[in-house]
Amino acid sequence: MIIVMKPGSPDELVKAVEDRIAELGYKPHTIRGVARTVVAAVGREDKTPLTQLETMAGVEAVIPILKPFKLVSREAHPEPTRFDIRGVEVGGRRISLIAGPCSVEDEQQVMACARAAKDAGAQFLRGGAFKPRTSPYAFRGLKERGLEILQAARDATGLLIVTEVLNTSDIPVVAEAADVLQIGARNCQNYSLLEQVGATGKPVLLKRGMATTLSEFLMSAEYLLSKGNIRVMLCERGIRTFETATRFTLDLNAIPFLKSETHLPVFVDPSHGTGLWRLVGPMARAAIAAGCDGLMIEIHPNPDHALSDGPQSLKPEKLLGLMPDLQRVAEAVGRTMKG
Ligand code: PEP
Ligand code: MN
User: Is the pTM of the predicted complex or chain greater than 0.85?
Assistant: First the structure.
């Protein structure tokens, strides 16, 4: 059930509703929107006792949420969610840009990427320090040393750091260094990781699993929100299909579908979604046209020598060259890439 408060309801009325929900044996989750506040009551199967909240002061309506996902649903929060990450707004008119290498390899590589990302107007620097790799013999990241390199790049450029957390035991060390915790495609349905990352309160970039339906993807995000974390970005990164010409098939349907079902910002990763750098620009443009709130693009100063994902990485000058195109498409759909 969601309890929709009347516009401008003071905090004490919201608090009284939260207390009553808890007394009735449910868990209250309050979502404060720009226009109004709603309180979601989750937990017990039988929702009938909650109908009595209709008579409480400040309550406009008590509405059942019919979807299996509750806190992430548009019903719980009709307006798109906007939030702040250390002074950077996500989910507003500006389309966010996350750029950086697949893996952190060394200081020079990361600094070259950070400068390129900054020049292109990105707000976030990505880079994997703990890497999920198909082969146990492949480069699996510099781990703690990689996190230090990312932090040095943040100090030098002011870009915020997005980096992957692979398992629950790494959460403390990664959360200490990162501004945004990335949960990778292979962990999209790792429910204990989702819960524990959700509990950190750190912003999360949740990537869709390569064989995860959109409904399952939203249920994964629900795990994060159920732990009280509202700063969640969803990221479409391509799914497995019969097609082998590209590494994955970037599911652009996901953008308008997710935007209609959830209030959370939707990001798109055309690098993993295609696996081919020549396709990254066109698919980034298409993602903006379809309504995404952010892009994540892999770059590398020397893709031929990259330790991971070189074939899909843009050279810094290619990213820079792409930006005017992205800006034109953004403007055509009422958005901007600029601050
Ligand atoms: C990555 O972002 O480098 C990555 C490993 O992505 P995914 O989890 O989508 O494969
Ligand atoms: Mn990668």
Answer: yes
